[in-house]
């Protein structure tokens, strides 16, 4: 079970691939953090935002987790608008 709450039907191949990768990170915590965000935003992301999200997903889970939780400062090259959207998405509270 992937955890995704949306269907990939109607998404282009790139968005389907990104959605799958967001839900299959390697750790359940990161599946939830990036997967829930992707469920919410994948359909409306611009090509530039998709580029930025793909770059973020190349970072090891541990690093992203420490940045999102504020345990470590986010390096400038990853402190992008899309990263800030991920953080803000989860700062709004738990998702059902």
Short recap of the structure:
This protein has 96 residues and is mainly alpha-helical. The protein is built from five helices and no strands.
The number of distinct β-strands equals: 0
Mean of residue pLDDT values: 89
Strand residues, percent: under 5%
CATH architecture descriptor: Orthogonal Bundle
Order of helices and strands: HHHHH
CATH-level-4 superfamily name: Flavinator of succinate dehydrogenase
CATH fold topology? DNA polymerase, domain 1
Judged by helices, strands and strand pairing, the structural class is mainly alpha
Overall helicity: 55-70%
Q: Major sheet: size, sense and barrel closure?
A: none
The total tally of domains equals 1
The level 1 CATH classification is Mainly Alpha
Relevant terms:
5 helices; 57% helix; mainly alpha; single chain; 96 residues
Give an overview of the whole structure.
The two termini are 16 Å apart. Helix content is 57%, strand content 0%. The protein is mainly alpha-helical. The relative contact order is 0.15. It has 5 helices and no strands. Helix 1 packs parallel to helix 3.
